[in-house]
Specification:
Distance between the termini: 94 Å
Number of domains: 2
Number of strands: 0
Structural class: mainly alpha
Largest sheet: none
């Protein structure tokens, strides 16, 4: 039984380096067959993911090693930054929002996994608050540009709607004028 456990440990220990070699070899081959920026951006992503998943394997092999989640997730988050900036081409304030949430998440997970690690709420709260602030600022910027467009669309809608209802509009206007100037307008309520 002990030999079987040692074989399992040895095979799981070789899993991540083996996957990393296969992925890097595939990227290098793709870079030779299809040279370009896309394959160049994938090399650091695969390296960062490989190292990050190695930390996740340390955690999964022994749940007492919760500390391995922080560098593991950080490396995976950095790989996400490379993907977002080099492949998806997101930058600026949206990237800052991603970074703040990416830093806050592993600390929040550490706290939620074990409530005795209350200290993890401090970096999670600070980074999460900054991320929410950046997101609200970004939403505010979007709304400032969207409001004039919505006003124009609403105005066009009202103009088009008013052009098709001349007869009803005249009757409605007469009723409204009569209600405002009729004999009941001067009586106190």
């Amino acid at each position: 039984m002990e030999t079987q456990s040692n074989n399992h440990r040895r095979s799981s220990r070789n899993l991540m380096p083996g996957l990393l070699l296969v992925a890097l070899g595939g990227i290098f081959l793709a870079g030779q067959l299809m040279p370009g920026r896309f394959t160049d951006a994938l090399i650091p992503v695969v390296i960062l993911l490989g190292i990050g998943f190695t930390f996740f394997m340390v955690y999964l092999s022994n749940r007492q090693n919760w500390w391995a989640l922080i560098p593991g997730y950080t490396l995976v988050a950095i790989a996400g930054i490379v993907v977002l900036s080099d492949i998806v081409h997101i930058d600026g304030q949206l990237m800052g929002t991603y970074v703040m949430f990416a830093i806050a998440f592993p600390f929040l997970y550490v706290f939620l996994n074990n409530r005795q690690n209350w200290w993890a709420l401090i970096p999670a709260g600070v980074m999460g608050t900054i991320g929410v602030g950046l997101l609200l600022d970004l939403a505010g910027t979007f709304l400032l540009t969207a409001i004039p467009g919505l006003m124009i669309v609403g105005g066009i809608y009202m103009l088009v709607r008013s052009m098709g209802r001349h007869e009803e509009t005249d009757e409605e206007n007469q009723e409204m004028v009569a209600a405002m100037t009729g004999p009941d307008t001067d009586t106190p309520r």
